[in-house]
């Protein structure tokens, strides 16, 4: 694993941006740039927002909202798994007759 950052170029809305990242982070950065480019193009295609800055802010807000929603789903799923584990532990405790610590 290298600790030397290397230059990388990505294109977002037909503009090239230069970054420096570790070699093992290159693929993730390219994937993130491609996702961002696609989302920004979707917003630009609506024709309502034309300034790059406004497109970027709207895209960031949409992606932030998606992240918040995913976190909520993750927390709900975690709580559901915890309840199921407690229920199974209670059933096991009842079947064995001894408390489980």
UniProtKB/TrEMBL annotation:
Statement: the UniProt record of this protein carries the keyword Cytoplasm: yes
GO cellular component, one term: cell septum
Pfam families referenced in this protein's UniProt entry, alphabetically: ZapA (PF05164)
SUPFAM superfamilies for the chain: Cell division protein ZapA-like
Keywords carried by this UniProt record: Cell cycle, Cell division, Coiled coil, Cytoplasm, Septation
InterPro entries (alphabetical): Cell_div_ZapA-like, Cell_div_ZapA-like_sf, Cell_div_ZapA_N
Compartments where found: Cytoplasm
GO biological process, one term: division septum assembly
Superkingdom of the source species: Bacteria
Family recorded in the similarity comment: Belongs to the ZapA family. Type 1 subfamily.
PANTHER family linked to this entry: CELL DIVISION PROTEIN ZAPA (PTHR34981)
Role this protein plays: Activator of cell division through the inhibition of FtsZ GTPase activity, therefore promoting FtsZ assembly into bundles of protofilaments necessary for the formation of the division Z ring. It is recruited early at mid-cell but it is not essential for cell division.
Subunit relationships: Homodimer. Interacts with FtsZ.
Protein known as: Cell division protein ZapA
